[in-house]
Amino acid sequence: MTTISSQPKDKPLPPQAAPVLSTGNSIKLKEQGDVYLGQGNLEAAANCYRQAIAIDPNYAKAHSNLGFVFMQQGATADAEESLKRALSIDNTNADTYFMLGNLATLARGDLEQGCRYLQKAVELSADLEVAYLDWARYMKFQGKLEQVKQFLISGLEKHPSRADYHRHLGNIYQDELQFDLAANCFQRALSIYPDDADALANLGFILYKQGQSQQAHATYEKVFSCLKTATINAPNDTDLHFKLANFLTSQNRYKEAIDGYERVLTLNPEYGEARLGRGMALLVTGQFESGWEDIKDSVKYAALPPTEMPEPVWLNDADVHGKTILLHADQGLGDTIHFVRYAEQVNSLGATVYIRAQASLKSLLMTLPGVSRVFGDEEILPPFDYQCSLSNISLAFNTTLASIPAKVPYLQASADRTAYWSNEFSDFSKAKIGIVWSGNPLLRNDKYRSIHLQRLSELLITGDHHFFLLQKEIRSVDAPFLSDLKNVTDLRSHLVDFSETAAVIANLDLVITVDTSVAHLAGALGKPVWIMLPFSPDFRWLLDRNDSPWYPTARLFRQSEIGDWDSVIKDLKRALDLEFM
């Protein structure tokens, strides 16, 4: 059975004809159910699985696949019952454990139980990559990543030929800045499976980190060769084509990546993640019209749990004069700050505009022009007529590069809190600069966009400027270096929400940050912000430019190759010396 994604699923399809098959063969019935499942005919698939179970009540795979159908339909209680029944018959099926892990974490919010199921899926299958990624992410969220590390170390003592264990352990060492240990793990993985594209890509990243650019380039070329050969040998394997396209985006080879995503969608027009990947590639290359359309369904892969709303979706396809429309956050904090700029345009159409967003943004978003009310993500909403996710609002206005609403500031810091911080900073005569070097470690691309504090030491030790920490969390790997920085003031305990952070930024001369929510906040406030970008950037920063059409006060500092923060920091230091003598 095809493994499922941990992302929220589509809404249940409308019931379709579910034929009663005359065969009395449970295996054939299950296989016919799999065909229907591949076609998206959930009712027919469920009917086949039920008939197979009626003939053979101990048919574990039929129970498991029926559970999968129930998950797709949102019937979580029925899904859990079917999956647990499958497990009681056969406790060696990794897919079943994986699905139960998804139910526990996403449907019930039970991370502990979910992680137990996911760990078991990892133990049973070296091929179920998504199970490990989900398990490690949830364990990290609970502060238990060390347990994952010890699990891998113990697992390799028993199963030294598990290439996936070597690779996963290498990733943890890499995050801990133990690059030699990480490289050793990736090399061991490759000694077992020389064409492991993931291990090759990770080794290439380490080589860049260690300044071995030539070897890194050669390693990445081998990744491309391995994936290309695999797609040639399996031309109809959509997952392989998708993996190749994703790799090409990481190399900034966007034209080839777009072709790759299109190959996937030719083979399977319903491959939603490929459509989303193509959309992001189109947007970063400035092809907004088709890009917005492709990411229209990105709510299915949202950072925030989706909320079912009976009100119709508005994409500027109905007259909203005199109506009330809810614009609701569906991605991360930075995305919310980025897209709320459209509220004023919606209001100009004669609509009453409500915003629903993360609670930490509520007081800040109340300063938005054109907005009547702002609700936190847990608050009960009053009636409204239409709704639109913030990630789709650009599509609603058919935004092009020429029509980006870039009027800043569109958010305001509190006058009282701004005055408070003005007084607090009155004794600082040097240039006052906010600094953020890392973001949410749970994001899968975090290793590319975040910097370790040690790398910034040359920038932060200068006596000509004073830096203020604008990030809430300090990672354990960074903490030892913080105490040695004399020109840095730690504001973490004061930054209770984004409104307070905005008041601090209002009193600074400059903000320097990686691609995090603070970059968007400074830009939305109209403050000078210098943003350090990875080689393959987020779509809104586009390519080959040092300014941003979204934020007129932003200046972009880009990596010239993967992992090359040294040149970025050197450029930053030179710019600081020129502009803040």
From TrEMBL:
Give the matching InterPro entries: Glyco_trans_9, TMTC_O-mannosyl-trnsfr, TPR-like_helical_dom_sf, TPR_rpt
Q: Which residues form the signal peptide?
A: none
Q: What's the superkingdom here?
A: Bacteria
Q: Which UniProt keywords apply?
A: TPR repeat
Matching entries from Gene3D superfamilies are given as: Glycogen Phosphorylase B, Tetratricopeptide repeat domain
- Location of region: Disordered: 1-21
TPR repeats mapped onto the chain: 26-59, 60-93, 163-196, 238-271
Could you confirm whether the keyword Cytoplasm appears in this record? no
- Protein name per the record: Tetratricopeptide repeat protein
Origin species, per record, is: Undibacterium hunanense
